[in-house]
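Sync notes, pocket subgroup
Present: LS, DG
LS reminded everyone that the earlier model was apo-only. Rerun requested with magnesium ion included. Inputs:
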Amino acid sequence: MTRIFADPDAFVADALRGFAAAHAGEVALVDGGVVRAQPLEPGRVAVLIGGGSGHYPAFAGFVGPGLAAGAICGNIFTSPSTAQALRVAHAADAGGGVLFTYGRYAGDVIHFGEAERRLRAEGVDARTVLITDDVASAAPDARDERRGIAGILCVFHVAGAAAERGDSIDEVERLAAHANSRTRSHGVAFAGCTLPGAGHPLFEVPDGVMSIGLGIHGEPGVRDVPLQRAPELAVTLAEPLLAERPEGCTRAAVILNGLGSVKYEELYVLFGHVAEHLQGHGIEIVEPECGEFVTSLDMAGVSLTVLWLDDELEELWTAPASSPGFRKGAVGGRTAPIAHREPPAPRASTEPAAATPAAASVTDASRDAARIARRLTRRARDAVAAQADHLGELDAVAGDGDHGIGMVRGLNAAAEAVEAADEATGVRELLGTAGDAWSETAGGTSGALWGAALTQLGQSLGNADRFTPEDVVAAVAAACARIAEIGGAHPGDKTMLDAMEPFRKALAARVQTGEDLAACLIAAASAAREGADATAAMTPRLGRARPLAERSIGHPDPGATSFWIIADAVAHDVAGRREGE
Ligand code: ADP
Ligand code: MG
């Protein structure tokens, strides 16, 4: 339960403002996150971390010497946008290159990946190391597909300490990847967490039961078992970590992490048993940590992390760090507080800018199409808003429960952007603006994908003298292709593509018969609905629902469901207008 807030929608911004006020000498706010108050020494690597909020001290609390140069902070459990990542990167960059490192979640990968690409186009040496420490989220032979949980702190500190001593971007990247390859975490949940302003938790764990393999976004665990006492729990947590101990390794950094509402005394009780158990396996524990590092709002749960050390990792793990949420050793004298720091102006991109036609050269057809797009955006928003709770519930089955909230936020932003656009705007610019607003505001995987799809739709339609139904088919196909390209999904993976592909195919087939576009859209929307319904039988192979694949069987995919809701609203609006004309 979150008791303290002003406006639940402003919770993240309010918390960040208070955080910056409380740590004014250490961090400075930038639009999209925080950077160190004291700029990096010129030529140093900027280690950038980030993700959704709700995990404090991750991520803003880990900004400081020996840790990150900046943190990109999204909404609760929602990936930040590409634009946010770019703003934080520009503010933190000291000329030595930028390393993005964060837990592997689809939305973050899409947004930060795009920011990395754009930074490279500006001439910044940007790299990425994904963190994949959670043993419960994929089998050992699919380690690259695991998600990141509390082990992110090990990688953050190794990378941050390497950057602090002046290592090159090649070295910092190598060491971060090396730390990730030797970090393993395993968690259990006793009770779910509640989003600020929400009346009930994202998931519930029955009394006397614990859920093994929890996620940090309110994703329930993968297996429920009877609650264990501390000695048995220590063994349960440690078992899969010991199973992946590198040959001959006897030294380990250990983190026992509380998820938000487990008392420190309870953590210490458990730590005693964990230490005994690991020592019993011949392991020497090096500078362990016991406390809250990566939380999940008020979730009751714990996770155990082991960083299997070698000489170079031990040197970095034991190096000093000084940030609001994690301090160890002595990092040198205090620096004078800097209350506010203006981010430097972004460097010019070397990418060719997309040509924007002057208002005079926008065709009448493009302007007409823009008018229709405005109306359809509002329609789509109203239809999704009416189903937001249902979409959230579908996402809570095996994901993090934010799909309804995220879609409404994105569509509201898109609708506001198209309202604010000049009457003379053509369809390409209008949909580009709407797509940017959607992706920037919604965050999350679906926000990134819908934002890119809308922008692509506009680019494909372009600034033509007239639009045919075939042009609409081609634009829909290009938008589908863009979603597949960015998200890497295939039909059958249980994503929004499983509604989009049937929509695209049905639309193309109907348009070929020469039928009226409105009738074609109605048929395509009904194919989208069938596609979305059919996802109920599928097992997710991508996204947040994958670790809980079994649970999701019998329930349709939230992203596929919201797609057909939008397709249906659009088709009926177009058909209604035709009849009314
Ligand atoms: P998040 O997963 O970041 O919380 P949302 O809950 O808003 O984002 O959206 C979840 C939906 O996004 C899923 O139901 C699925 O349809 C879609 N999705 C997730 N990953 C992908 C992907 N790689 N490609 C296409 N769609 C995806
Ligand atoms: Mg979600």
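DG: Residues 364-386 form the longest helix (23 residues).
LS: The mean pLDDT is 93.
Action: DG to write up.
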